[in-house]
Amino acid sequence: MMIVVTNKGRQDFVAGFDGVKYGFPGKGGKTIVTKEVVQHIFGIGNADKTGILARHGWLTSSADMDKAMSRLAAFAFATLDETEQATPVAAQEQGSAPLQAETVGLGGSDGLIEPTVEVSQEV
After folding, report:
1. Predicted TM-score (pTM) of this structure
2. What average pLDDT score do residues 51-76 get?
3. Fewest CB within 10 A of the end CB: N or C in the chain?
């Protein structure tokens, strides 16, 4: 079963499971992961979240419990509709690509990136 995790907090969050790091971008970012990943990272299905909160550094003393639970509450979980086509992406598998001019609304429609430095053809 695949789970959509929405990070409603302001900060990005990265955590690992089984040797793989998963990224959960803040400000409403969504990440699709397996049920096992969600259970390990967020403690879904566990009545006692103390170990999960401590592992992420959100709980350092019992006085921090309310604040730590608020941090955990910033994540929402939903099952992925089976009609949707999606593949889970681990943080270490994500790459980056330069933005095209048209992507950021600066015009240009041919998809080419203009060089910023002239290259001399002299030999």
Report:
1. 0.62
2. 89
3. C
